[in-house]
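Continuing the series of single-chain predictions for the mutant panel. This is the parent chain; the variants come on the following pages.
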Amino acid sequence: MKYKDGVLMTLTVTKWGGAKKLEPQDLGLKADEVPEFMRLGKKLLIPKEEREAFVQTENNARNALERASFPFPVGGARFVPNKVLMKILQELEAYKRVYMDLAASFRDRYHLIREDMLAKYPEHRDKLEPFYPPVQLLGKRFSFEWVVFVIEDASYQAKNGEDVAAAYEKFKASLETQFDKFLSDVVIDLRFQVQETCLKIAERVKAGEIINAHSIGAVHRMIDKFKTLNFIGDQTIESKLEELRGQLNGGRSAEDFKDETARQALREAAEAVARQAAEIGDISKITGEYKRRIQL
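Parent structure:
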């Protein structure tokens, strides 16, 4: 079986941490003078804002990948549906450029950053200076890469012997079990996001709060995201979401939802979707139909 509706992706980002573990002697203590309930921190070799720039860019990239994918139960990979693959690749390319530009800037300013830190703490210079690597080595400390690969059954040749054949069959069965759970988790995750957004909009109406452009936009974004990531084909929820979208379309704006009739119609539609999304009794049927489709 080959799963053609998406690929697996891993993102690997490395950086020089700009810190070293704090040792007891750095504080004028012996090792046995540090109580067991205490944990020593780190010696910072660069200003925290320098490191935070790299951390923030990496976090932004990982968040972008997570928003467009699902956690896969093998190797810490993310399953990216084909519909969003090119979009996430473009986003990762943009984040890589930012990250590597930060790395180049850091290398260019490294000697200044180093000297500023050492000058700022002259009494600790002898404890800090040995931990600064040569600038020539910094280039190898920064990287931003991803790997994309497809999911296929393990295969073997008869000439490899019966033991190998049995092992491959075991691998295949294990992957099948994990993939079944993954499919169920995808349906549950998407339905939870739908339920959460719909309950929020219903609660706003119930509480008499204003339905503004931001609220309407959040519902549209949720519906669009569901349709994009719904590679399994949860048509039950998708059809309900189209009914909900019908309450928002027709040129309706936030101003239109000051009318009580429109507000209650929106609330009823949102609650209906939320109730349906909370149901999980049909998940096995949905994932089973999907597996039959991809096996054709």
